[in-house]
Amino acid sequence: SISDDEKTTLKNELKIKIKNMFFHKIGGVLVLNTDYLLVSKFLNLSYVTIYGSYMMVFQVVTVLMSSFVNAITASVGNFLINQNDDEVTSIAKQFNTVFIALATFISLNMYFLVNDFITNWIGEKFILGNGIVILMLVNVFISVIRIPCDIFKNATGFFGDVYYPLLEGGSNLFFSALLAFYIGLPGIIIGTIISNVLITLIAKPLYLYGKMFGRFNALKKYLSFVLKPLIFSFVIFAVFYFAREQIIFFKASNWFDFMSKLTIVSLVSMIIVFAVFYADANFRSFVKRILRVVF
């Protein structure tokens, strides 16, 4: 049986974790709603509708990814319990590589398809410029590649980075408001990118991997997880961007054309992303792991 002292310790630990999770949720809500508030403050109401339409499309990805995270967190937690550092490092590399590949695939498809979707959905007058769409997709990309960190944080229970979500929301508000004053909507999105890079891509992973592998190993481990797959990703983006005029992706003016374009873009981007990332041993290991489970 559990002694009174052990019960007290468990209760205190549970209270701390609940409090920390609460701060994470509050920070998440703050980040999500800051941009909407700033768009309505610095721009006219038509931009709120246009920006909101794009965000609705992009948030479908976020919802699907959140469902996936919730589904596998317990399994990852059970796996980590009985593994040594080398095995944990291996699975962390695989997860980061696969989610960077997935983020690349999603971003490419969104780039070539989102304006056509908006046109068919609510009309061509609600289309944003190419540069603004790219900026928004940077945040979509970050929202996907952050998932391995969220999975491992939830699985290990390391919620001690309690002030990071609030700092993320505060920095997002500061940078977005400052830049919105000078350059409008692009400034709001760039402010969110800055906040995401500083907190989501740097501070949070370094905290988590510091807890998992030791503070002095955190940066080295993190770079070993993401550097190579990010290079692969940027090479793919560069090829598609500079070849976009030569690649025949017709304008889909109706839903039938859109579905045809969706099929073509998805197949082409999937083949290219898979072919490039298959050169990475961590990606190959993950694919083989999935195939063993399925077959």
From TrEMBL:
Location, primary (coarse class): membrane
Keywords: Cell membrane, Membrane, Transmembrane, Transmembrane helix
Matching InterPro entries: Poly_Biosynth_Transport (IPR050833)
TM annotation in the entry: 21-39, 51-74, 95-114, 126-149, 161-182, 188-210, 222-242, 262-279
Compartment(s): Cell membrane
Topology in membrane: Multi-pass membrane protein
A Gene Ontology term for the protein's cellular component: plasma membrane
Domain of life the protein comes from: Bacteria
Protein name per UniProt: Polysaccharide biosynthesis protein
Species whose genome carries this gene: Salmonella enterica subsp. enterica serovar Mbandaka
